[in-house]
Amino acid sequence: MKNWQALSDHTKGSVLGAIFRAHGCQFFEKHVDFVGGEKTPDSCVSMTADEFKLYRSIIRSTKPVDHEKRRKYARNTWGVQKTERGYFRPLVT
Prior knowledge:
- The protein is an alpha/beta fold.
- It has one domain.
- Helix content is 29%, strand content 24%.
- It is built from three helices and six strands; from the N terminus they run βαβββααββ.
- Strands 1-2 form a two-stranded parallel sheet.
- The longest helix has 13 residues, at 49-61.
- The radius of gyration is 21 Å and the shape is elongated.
């Protein structure tokens, strides 16, 4: 997976930020409503100050994935494939 440097996060939650942090992202842009309740063009995706504190703590506590170590221990994906005679055989991807 590509190592992302920055994320312009236009979601309400914290999940996307944590995923990108795990893959090496260092800069995050998030819409925050510090005033509370004021209608703005981006108010539908803005977090409250308390939600932003939680978002920040999740980002800071998420450790980047060591992709080289992960590849070393990665397993193949197994499945089955139907043959012309109707039998199933193992399929490794």
